[in-house]
UniProtKB/TrEMBL annotation:
InterPro entries: HTH_11 (IPR013196), WH-like_DNA-bd_sf (IPR036388). Residues 6-47 form the Helix-turn-helix type domain. It holds the Pfam family HTH_11. Gene3D superfamilies: Winged helix-like DNA-binding domain superfamily/Winged helix DNA-binding domain. It comes from the Bacteria. This is Helix-turn-helix type 11 domain-containing protein.
Length: 135
């Protein structure tokens, strides 16, 4: 299979939120795994060089599942926003109600299971109280 056809096939799979296993693809296209990695890098460069990057899409490698996927704009904003919030609360030594801390813990478990350990480290550093906070 020609390189252009292989690139389009990989690109199409990625934009349809399919996970890319480089070993399986290498077998499918009868190429080396390094070739698949270079193809993915070429697609990544395309995102950076074109308007696709404005959408803040990036190809990430999931080490746990050993595959590539596109991390969409929405996922990146959620991740960044939650992490910024947690860092802000820790840095400012903000005391929050226990109920809010439990709500944050629930959000982390449900929405960000892959980043759970990182976020729980921040959460442990945030002070909480049983008292209701008022201004």
């Amino acid at each position: 299979m020609k390189r252009a056809h292989r690139l389009l096939s990989i690109y199409t799979r990625l934009i349809h939120q399919q996970k890319i296993d480089k070993t399986l693809l290498a077998d499918e296209f009868n190429v080396n795994e390094r070739t698949i990695k270079r193809d993915i890098q070429a697609i990544r460069n395309y995102f950076y060089d074109n308007e696709e990057w404005v959408m803040k899409k990036d190809i990430i490698f999931n080490y746990k599942d050993n595959n590539y996927l596109i991390q969409s704009n929405h996922q990146m904003k959620d991740l960044e926003g939650l992490e910024i919030l947690l860092i802000y609360l820790v840095a400012n030594k903000t005391v929050i109600p226990n109920s809010m801390k439990e709500a944050l813990k629930y959000m982390i478990n449900v929405l960000f299971p892959n980043d759970k350990q990182k976020y729980e480290t921040y959460l442990k550093a945030i002070k909480s109280t049983n008292q209701f906070m008022s201004h």
